[in-house]
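Researcher: Next sequence.
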Amino acid sequence: MLLSQVIAVLLAHPLSEPCPATVGSTPRISMWVGSPKVISVADDATFKLSPPEPVDIKLIKKPGPGRGAALLLVGVKEGDAVLTVESDGGVSRWNVNVEAADIDAELGIKTLFPCGTTMRWKFVKERVQLFGTASSLDEWMAVARSQREVPTLIVSGSLDPAVIAWTIGEANVALARVGLTRLHFVRDGDAVLLEGEVPDGREADFAKVEAEWREKLTAAFWKPKNRK
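Model: Next structure:
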């Protein structure tokens, strides 16, 4: 993941508070390849990472004098390093450990979504979270496919209720189109039911409509299953 991409994500949220001090030992920072960490530091801070390979580091100045600064760390390679930060307030050190993680694969889920998607994503403790309201059935089906392909994906969004109503309405139009005007799909809470009985001799017509709309009706009522 590019450093500029991580910065764009982080600048939309408040910078983290300083890491808590660890009594009797050097504080430890654990990271994934591709994941960010933020450490608050003084305005005059300088830093050194030894060896430099496992982590990209950028110093970000907070707006306004005396507001402090922050170090943005992004894991780029598996390994261990020691981060040393010096300022007028003294010297601080952290042991940094970077482990492998397929974050890029998780971000690849974005390629599943249609153009104009209204869903958004962010990092939550080295996991990707999708949030917002899906404005089309295709978009919500992409959310479902994403969680199947990336089980650790967190989904906190939902499908626009108007889209659910539209999907049921279109399925009923399909029934009427083949002459099954006394059959109707109806919403019952978080499920869809069929009202009426299929007339004798019309089973094939109903089966055709059901096959066409089963996946879409199921997707309209799909609920995320987030792993802890």
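Model: The chain is about 25% helix and 35% strand. The chain has a mean pLDDT of 80.
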